[in-house]
Specification:
The chain is built from 14 helices and eleven strands. The chain is an alpha/beta fold and 325 residues long. The chain has two domains: 3-132, Glycogen Phosphorylase B (Rossmann fold, 3-Layer(aba) Sandwich); 148-323, Glycogen Phosphorylase B (Rossmann fold, 3-Layer(aba) Sandwich). It has a six-stranded parallel sheet with strand order 8-7-6-9-10-11, sandwiched between helices. Helix 2 packs parallel to helix 6 (121-127). The longest helix has 13 residues, at 148-160.
């Protein structure tokens, strides 16, 4: 008999994508998972194939569980599930006590390992599920499914620009903070275009300055910028790319998750904990994490080597799983 499991992850895109192996493990244990995430992520994960369905985290009213005296119906939205996984609230004793009143197998854990623990986030999340069943010997494979309509829409957008499927290199020059942004994207774009490769850039609401630097350097034209696309459409575009190069950011994690060969650039964040999960991922980090970035020659050579290896297949394993870091 299939058991229903509610999984709650309040994090941003990249954080939730790193839960992919844990979601795959839940499926292997016989659970049908409902993933509760922020509203922006619902459509992507609902069609991802990683979970049975996805819903808006706010609809659960979990804020009501952080007070001593909860309303009589506060637990009703989660009592319909056979098991509960909360990657949140682990440090709040009131939240934990309120959930303890439900007679369900329940996991309450932090969404990432302690700083300096030397463990990858995906491994940490899988290990939090130990109360629900035996842990797997290897990190489960997790790949985001791209819905056909999103792939077709992205393909049409590329075709309008004379770009075929499997031709473009997608750049993600933005990130959540300036400290995480590699400054070499204009030079890399010029080099890729000189070699005959079409270049596309992603631009989210917070990526304006990074993309404007590309435009100002005449590294690409405005019509080669995919601005403010829904995540499902970005997934479609990345699934059709030859490769992606990006900072430690959500779209870079998404590129890896859909199977796009990906070069991920790290500055202050630790790739040992945050490397994107995918079968064709290379990471680069400066010699001094906070102050020195890889130069364009190194990034270009890494991308060339990745492309020479070809696109990974569905049967491939994640780099993280080989070492089970």
């Amino acid at each position: 008999m299939t058991r229903r499991c509610l999984v709650v992850h309040p994090g941003a895109l990249g954080d939730v994508l790193l839960a992919g192996p844990a979601l795959g493990h839940l499926r292997a244990l016989g659970f049908r998972a409902t993933l509760a995430v922020t509203s922006r992520l619902v459509a992507l994960f609902a069609g991802s194939g990683l979970v049975h369905d996805a819903r808006n985290l706010d609809s659960l009213g979990l804020h009501r569980l952080f007070v001593e005296s909860i309303a009589p119906n506060a637990l009703a939205p989660i009592e319909v599930f056979d098991a509960l996984v909360f990657w949140m609230g682990a440090g709040d004793p009131v939240f934990r006590r309120n959930l303890a009143t439900i007679d369900r197998p329940t996991v309450i854990a932090r969404a990432q390992p302690p700083p300096g623990a030397g463990r990858h986030v995906s491994r940490h999340l899988v290990e939090t599920l130990a109360p629900l069943g035996p842990l797997p010997p290897d990190l489960p494979f997790a790949r985001v499914h791209v819905i056909p309509a999103a792939r077709a829409s992205a393909g049409a957008w590329l075709a309008d620009r004379g770009i075929g499927p499997g031709d473009a290199v997608v750049l993600q020059p933005g990130a959540g903070s300036a400290a995480k942004m590699w400054p070499g994207f204009p030079a890399l774009a010029h080099r890729l275009r000189a070699s005959g490769l079409p270049v596309i850039a992603l631009a989210g609401p917070a990526d304006g300055l990074a993309v404007e630097a590309l435009l100002a350097a005449e590294a690409l034209a405005e019509d080669r910028v995919a601005r403010d696309w829904p995540l499902v459409e970005i997934a479609g575009l990345l699934s059709l790319a030859r490769a992606a190069v990006g900072n430690d950011s959500g779209p870079t994690h998404l590129a890896a998750a859909v199977g796009c060969p990906t070069v991920a650039l790290f500055g202050p964040t630790d790739p040992a904990a945050w490397v994107p999960v995918g079968a064709a991922v290379r990471t680069l980090r400066g010699t001094s994490a906070a102050t020195s970035w890889p130069d364009v020659d190194r990034v270009s050579a890494t991308l060339e080597a990745l492309l020479a290896g070809g696109r990974a297949t569905r049967s491939g394993r994640h780099p993280v799983s080989r070492a089970w870091r």
